Amino acid sequence: MATYQAARAKFVPPALQLPSDSIRELRVDMRLVLVTIRLGVQAVLEMAVQVNEVNVLLPLVPLVDVLDLRFGKSTGLPIQH
C-alpha cells in the first residue's frame, strides 16, 4: 500500500461491515499513522543493513583492537571487571 488512498480502500470496506455497537470512536489522523509506520519500518530495515555490514566487516578488524575497545586500553575508557 503505497498511499493513504490505497490503505483506505483496503480497510474501510471491511470496517463498514462491523456492527456499529462494536466500534469505539478513535480520533487520529490516519495519514500521520501511515507516515509513522513507514518511518518505523524504514528504521528497522536500515538497522538490518547496518547489522549485516557489521557481520561482514567485524571479522576484518584485528582482535586486539576489538579487545582494546572492550577493556578501554586504547580508548581511554575505564577498565570494567
Describe the structure.
The chain has 81 residues and is mainly alpha-helical. Helices cover 62% and strands 0% of the residues. It is elongated and about 65 Å long. The N and C termini lie far apart (51 Å). The mean pLDDT is 80.
Q: What is the residue-averaged pLDDT?
A: 80
Bin the helical content: 55-70%
Secondary-structure element sequence? HHH
Query: What class would the helix/strand composition place it in?
Result: mainly alpha
Q: How big is the Rg?
A: 24 Å
Main beta-sheet annotation: none
| Strand percentage | under 5%
Uncertain runs with pLDDT below 50, 5 residues or more? Answer: none
Number of helices in the DSSP assignment: 3
SS elements, strand count: 0
From the N-terminal CA to the C-terminal CA, the straight-line distance is 51 Å
Overall geometry comes to elongated
Strand and helix map with partners:
Layout: H1 4-16, H2 30-57, H3 63-71
Features:
81 residues; 3 helices; mainly alpha; elongated
Quick overview of this protein structure:
The chain has 81 residues and is mostly helical. The protein has helices at 4-16, 30-57, 63-71.
